[in-house]
Amino acid sequence: MRPIHVVRLDKARPALILTRSSAIPYLTHVTVAPITSTIRGIVSEVPLSERNGLDHDSVASLDNVTTVPVSAIGRLIGFLEPEDEKTLTAVIERSFDLH
Questions:
Q1: What is the torsional sign of CA 35, 36, 41, 43?
Q2: What topology is assigned to 2-95 in CATH?
Q3: Which of 5, 27, 33, 51 is buried most deeply by CB count within 10 Å?
Q4: Where are the chain's structural domains?
């Protein structure tokens, strides 16, 4: 399952870790999608909720994907559930016009 951690970005905020877990020990930076409670209902958002370890309904914003130092990754909050991986894949395809 893909982890959600607190990450130091502009401020400490939850983020979905997009880099595959097996690569992280060998990297100095990882790719993340910041999570926000501002839900705009656009194609680049992955819906998340309490079942993912968050306090309230939120979205991972694929319009704001960024890389951060591994040292910026804080505590584990939760996970993207296996059934949400298909949603993530579809949102990535739409966000980057890959279809």
A1: negative
A2: SH3 type barrels. (2.30.30)
A3: 33
A4: 2-95
Tokens of 72: 């910026």
Residues 6+ positions from 70 with CB-CB distance below 8 Å: 24, 27, 28, 29, 30
pTM of the model: 0.94
The candidate with the shortest Cα–Cα distance to 47, out of 60, 37, 29, is 60
Element (H, E) at 13: strand 12-17
Hey, CA dihedral for 61, 66, 70, 71, is it positive or negative?
A: negative
The pLDDT tens digits of the residues spanning 21-80 come to: 999 999 999 999 999 999 999 999 999 999 999 999 999 999 999 999 999 999 999 999
